[in-house]
From TrEMBL:
It comes from the Bacteria. Keywords: DNA damage, DNA repair, DNA replication, Hydrolase, Magnesium, Metal-binding, Mutator protein. InterPro entries: MutT-like, MutY_C, NUDIX_hydrolase-like_dom_sf, NUDIX_hydrolase_CS, NUDIX_hydrolase_dom. One of its GO terms (molecular function) is metal ion binding. SUPFAM superfamilies: Nudix. Residues 1-125 form the Nudix hydrolase domain. Its cofactor is Mg(2+). Belongs to the Nudix hydrolase family. This is 8-oxo-dGTP diphosphatase. It is an enzyme of class 3 (hydrolase). It comes from Parapedobacter pyrenivorans. The lineage of its organism: Bacteria, Pseudomonadati, Bacteroidota, Sphingobacteriia, Sphingobacteriales. One of its GO terms (biological process) is DNA repair.
């Protein structure tokens, strides 16, 4: 099973969502940014590292949400979401096609990576701004 972290980054009442590039797997799907946990790595450190590498943002984890397990045709994934806030940096995309700050009500209007759909639902129900 592939263990992947992702961040629900909240700033000024909006959430940062990212679109995978056409050369990544799940091309052009929207996701919460993040990446794979490396062997022996603490997942709360993975998410901070990945957001710095991919977005040039420094984040602080606020809390952990419910992990989601999903079967893709070629592999099984456990997606571990963290609510986080920005504490530094300037948004600059290293590998994504696009990134947007959206309201919680706008989340449903995007074409999400399938594993993210339950996380979108949890965020809609559980995040208070
Ligand atoms: N980062 C991220 N990956 C997701 C999400 N949902 C989802 O199914 N995935 C899948 O999780 C896997 C890991 O994604 P990734 O390519 O971002 O991981 P990474 O940055 O560590 O990869 P790399 O080191 O190979 O570049 C991919 O197969 C991706 O499609 C999500 O919300 N965020």
């Amino acid at each position: 099973m592939l263990i992947v972290t992702c961040a629900v980054i909240i700033q000024h009442g909006k959430i940062l969502i990212c679109q995978r590039s056409s050369t990544m797997d799940l091309p052009l799907k929207w996701e919460f940014p993040g990446g794979k946990v490396e062997p022996g790595e603490d997942d709360a450190l993975t998410i901070v590292r990945e957001i710095t590498e991919e977005l040039h943002l420094e984040i602080e984890v606020v809390r952990r949400l419910q992990p989601v397990e999903h079967d893709y045709p070629a592999f099984r994934i456990r997606l571990v979401p963290f609510v986080a806030r920005v504490i530094g940096g300037q948004l600059r995309l290293e590998e994504h096609a696009d990134a947007r700050w959206v309201t919680v009500d706008e989340l449903a209007g995007y074409d999400w990576a399938p594993a993210d759909v339950p996380i979108v639902e949890e965020v809609k129900g559980a995040i208070r701004f």
